[in-house]
Amino acid sequence: MKVKISNKIGIAEILILPIIKNGHIHLNLSKNTKNQINNALQTKDFTGDEDETLMIYDENPSKRILLVGLGNKKDLNSLNYRQAGGNARNALKKIKAASVEIAMEQKYLWPFLEAFLLAGYKFNKYKTDIDKDKHNIQDIYILNESKDLKDLQQELEEITQNCQMMDYVRDMVNAPAEEMSPSELVAQAQKVANLSTNIKLKVLDQKKLKKLGLNAIYTVGKSGKSGSYLILLEYKYQTKNKNPYSFIGKGISFDTGGLHLKPRDNISDMHLDMAGAATVLGLFHKLALNKIPGYFLGVIATAENAIGPDAYHPNDIIKTYSGKTVEIKNTDAEGRLVLCDAISYSNKHYKPACIIDIATLTGAATVSVGDEITPFTSNNSDLTKKLLSAAKKTDDLFWQLPLEKFHIKATKGKNADLTNFTKHMPGQVIMGAAFLANFIADNTPWLHLDIASTSWQDRKILSYIPEGGTGVPLLTLIELVKKLG
Ligand SMILES: [Zn+2]
After folding, report:
1. For residue 307, with 0-12 CB atoms within 10 Å meaning exposed, 13-18 middle and 19 or more buried, which class applies?
2. Which of 30, 163, 262, 320 sits between 20 and 30 A of 443, alpha carbons compared?
3. Which residue, among 437, 432, 424, has the nearest Cα to 450 in the 3D structure?
4. CA distance to 14, 67, 147, 154, per residue, from 121 (Å)
5. Straight-line distance from the first to the last Cα atom of the chain, in angstroms, rounded to the nearest whole number
6. What is the residue-wise DSSP string for 326-359?
7. 360 CA distance to ligand 1 centroid (A)?
């Protein structure tokens, strides 16, 4: 699919026309077309309200116009345009058309087009009966009247590339566990590293992890057939920074819950538990292609939390890479175990300027703020501001939860330094963060993003976010690295 600039209307088969409620159309259209649109407005078949779309047919049978509602003028914002972009794409899903052209104000082109591209995603790798003529838009033309062509061209390339990275993450998250194993995540990291001479890859396998004392990652993965890995992607380009910004992703390829086995309803989609790792891979893929200046470290802690003769037990005590011991009170709280070693390894060998961990850490993330908002904790207001400012461009939603000293104190263990699960403490999103806080070096700015709710959707709520793997919050992280670098 290609996104191109056009200076005249009528090149494509379908003209997409976003319309504000009770708004006017300023485009130079034929009298007949204008009449048709006016008829739709007069009959109120289409009013321009949010979530409305209407296809109008021209005299020429191959030419069509898709009207897309934006809602009231006074409520217009970037999210309205994003929602409308997704609605437009969804309305075309059953239509055979190879080309579309979009006529709209440039100010909101970014969210509209991004959502239009994102809504086209389908995980149909395993489907053999797809109608290839449908869902197959080849060319998207952006009608441009005023903007500097070079700027617009660059913008379109950036949007297209970002959406490709989102689809790359979605594909990995949707892939069955058998396909996206820890060793496959290593292979993906290798592919990303091969894209750029600015990336160095280092992989610690199960043997190395044991030898070096990364026992938390080692222990979680020892019952899985591909073992555990710590993957390190070090990216450096045009920067004098001595310390990297460290992005750490949880990569549990399948989470059975271990001997604290998950109930039947909760286990089905647990191949999603590597979404944090996939997000880090997506981010470094973007860095490799786009050469964003900066020094960034991607750390992926990957393992399968399987059941087998080697599975770790409740009440086992593990000595983590930091030297701190942890008693296992819940084998399903494995994410924080693999992450704590990843954080400690990153501290010791790279002394990061900040740590951002991205993890499907707790089912409680959904309970805390719902499926569309990523709850997070942080010890640093500057980093928090940067995250929220990055999110303004992407319309990803975040909500900060508190993390107090008493939360961290509550992670103290009875027979070991720490416990990985504190049954008597509600607020499990915070308790996941509280456990990790024990491993963050003093004064290192830190963001903990619990993406258990937002990286996967059971039902479609926003028009441009599909069911299954969503790719969220990759777009925001891409904006964030630009602010950090
Ligand atoms: Zn778990």
Report:
1. middle
2. 320
3. 432
4. 20, 22, 29, 23
5. 31
6. EE-S-TT--HHHHHHHHHHHHHHHH--SEEEEEE
7. 9
- 334 C-alpha to center of ligand 1: Å? 5
| Predicted confidence (pLDDT) per residue in 66-85, tens digit | 999 999 999 899 999 999 99
Q: How many angstroms does the Cα of residue 224 sit away from the middle of ligand 1?
A: 14
Model confidence over 393-438: pLDDT tens digits? 999 999 999 999 999 999 999 999 999 998 888 889 999 999 999 9
In single-letter form, the type of residue at position 209 comes to L
Nearest to 143, CA basis, from 110, 104, 177, 178: 104
Write the CB contacts of 412 (distance below 8 Å, at least 6 apart in sequence): 418, 419
Q: Answer yes or no: are the C-beta atoms of 47 and 41 closer than 8 Å.
A: yes
3-state SS assignment for residue 420: coil
Ligand 1 centroid – CA 271 distance (Å): 11
Tokens representing 55? 């296809």
Residue 262: active-site member: yes
pTM of the model: 0.97
Q: Which of 4, 122, 147, 262 is catalytic?
A: 262
> What pLDDT sits at residue 472?
98
The alpha carbon of 305 and the centre of ligand 1 are apart by a number of angstroms equal to 7
Q: Over the range 104-139, which residues count as b (16 or more CB within 10 Å of their CB) and which as e?
A: beeebbbbbbbbbbbbbbebeeeeeeeeeeebebeb
Whether 170 is catalytic: no
Relative to beta strand 446-450, strand 354-359 is parallel
- Could you say which of 286, 329, 336, 386 is catalytic? 336
| pLDDT average, residue stretch 41-61 | 90
Domains in the chain: ranges and CATH = 2-145 (3.40.220.10), 168-484 (3.40.630.10)
Measured in angstroms, how far is the CA atom of residue 362 from the centroid of ligand 1? Answer: 8
SS3 string, 221-236, reads: HCCCCCCCEEEEEEEE
Q: Is the peptide bond before 18 cis (omega within 30 degrees of 0)?
A: no
54 pLDDT higher than 60? yes
| Structure tokens, 216 | 């938390």
What's residue 132's pLDDT?
A: 63
Cα 309 to ligand 1 centroid, rounded to whole Å: 18
**Where does 94-204 show beta strands of DSSP type E?**
99-102, 139-143, 199-204
The number of beta carbons lying within 10 Å of the beta carbon of residue 276 is 30
Q: What is the pLDDT of residues 318-338, one digit of tens each?
A: 999 999 999 999 999 999 999
Q: From the CA of 79, how far away is ligand 1's center (Å)?
A: 33
